[in-house]
TrEMBL record:
<keyword id="KW-0029">Amino-acid transport</keyword>
<dbReference type="InterPro" id="IPR010065">
    <property type="entry name" value="AA_ABC_transptr_permease_3TM"/>
</dbReference>
<dbReference type="GO" id="GO:0043190">
    <property type="term" value="C:ATP-binding cassette (ABC) transporter complex"/>
</dbReference>
<keyword id="KW-0812">Transmembrane</keyword>
<protein>
    <submittedName>
        <fullName>Amino acid ABC transporter permease</fullName>
    </submittedName>
</protein>
<feature type="transmembrane region" description="Helical">
    <location>
        <begin position="212"/>
        <end position="231"/>
    </location>
</feature>
<keyword id="KW-1003">Cell membrane</keyword>
<keyword id="KW-1133">Transmembrane helix</keyword>
<dbReference type="GO" id="GO:0022857">
    <property type="term" value="F:transmembrane transporter activity"/>
</dbReference>
<feature type="domain" description="ABC transmembrane type-1">
    <location>
        <begin position="36"/>
        <end position="235"/>
    </location>
</feature>
<keyword id="KW-0813">Transport</keyword>
<comment type="similarity">
    <text>Belongs to the binding-protein-dependent transport system permease family. HisMQ subfamily.</text>
</comment>
<keyword id="KW-0472">Membrane</keyword>
<feature type="transmembrane region" description="Helical">
    <location>
        <begin position="107"/>
        <end position="126"/>
    </location>
</feature>
<comment type="function">
    <text>Part of the binding-protein-dependent transport system for glutamine; probably responsible for the translocation of the substrate across the membrane.</text>
</comment>
<dbReference type="Pfam" id="PF00528">
    <property type="entry name" value="BPD_transp_1"/>
</dbReference>
<dbReference type="GO" id="GO:0006865">
    <property type="term" value="P:amino acid transport"/>
</dbReference>
Length: 248
């Protein structure tokens, strides 16, 4: 592909001075692709962790144990009321400093690298919003539906897993979509702890080639396309999971 587009972008640079070096320089091209791939991996991992936390937190909020409900409420207040970049730096430099290191045969590597801390920090941040999103979905489930499940002999756990959660997930999909899109964009903060995602990769390119405006345009286009794809997928999922009589 690079062989096909390289001549055009080389001529563009020679005639206009617009330097989109990743599209004609093999080294920059590989850095761009690597950054895009790491960015996608990071976003998928962050979203997955935030969803797991959201489901578990929403379930814990229905617990009969007051201490469990209090812990979930405290978690939400702490991580929803502090900036994600502060949380990211706290996890990486604060907790990372006391995390055990692994002997790699002559040198030591942290047990959790920058990628892992980015997933943990941003995933926990997103999970604090997902807990409330799933809670709103759980509360939207009709009481008669829960009573019918109880009449069939379902335990509270079975009702949550097989009845309440599937319906709650459908009810909260619009709000969940907004948070997932927000997390996809927030993942770019991993740049500050040197995760080699798209922002970090392009910053390396513009430092070498002094083509900041061109790389910023490329970065904008990348996130516009990525978020559009995520929104499209979530919209398609919402239509496929729609149930007649439940919010339709």
């Amino acid at each position: 592909m690079l062989d096909i587009i390289a001549p055009f972008f080389e001529r563009l640079y020679e005639t206009t001075g617009l330097n989109f070096s990743p599209f004609y320089d093999p080294y920059d091209w590989n850095r761009l692709l690597r950054g895009m791939w790491v960015s996608v991996e990071l976003i998928i991992a962050i979203i997955a962790l935030s969803l797991v936390i959201g489901v578990i937190g929403a379930g814990a909020q229905t617990s009969r144990i007051r201490a469990v409900r209090w812990l979930v409420a405290a978690y939400i207040e702490i991580f929803r009321n502090t900036p994600p970049i502060v949380q990211l730096l706290f996890f990486y430099f604060g907790l990372g400093a006391i995390t055990p290191q692994v002997d790699m045969g002559g040198w030591y590597e942290p047990m959790i690298g920058s990628f892992g801390w980015a997933v943990i920090a941003i995933g926990i941040f997103g999970g604090s919003y997902n807990v409330e999103i799933f809670r709103s979905g759980v509360e939207a489930v009709p009481g008669t539906t829960v009573e019918a499940a109880e009449a069939l002999g379902f335990t509270n756990f079975q009702i949550f897993v097989y009845v309440t959660l599937p319906l709650a997930f459908r009810f909260c999909l619009p709000a969940l979509t907004n948070n997932i899109i927000s997390l996809a964009k927030t993942s770019s903060l991993a740049y500050v702890i040197a995760v080699p995602e798209i922002t970090y990769s392009l910053s390396g390119i513009w430092s070498d080639s002094v083509n900041v405006p061109e790389m910023m345009v490329l970065l904008f286009v990348y996130y516009i396309v990525l978020v559009a794809i995520i929104a499209r997928l979530m919209s398609s999922l919402e239509r496929r999971l729609a149930l007649p009589g439940y919010g339709q």
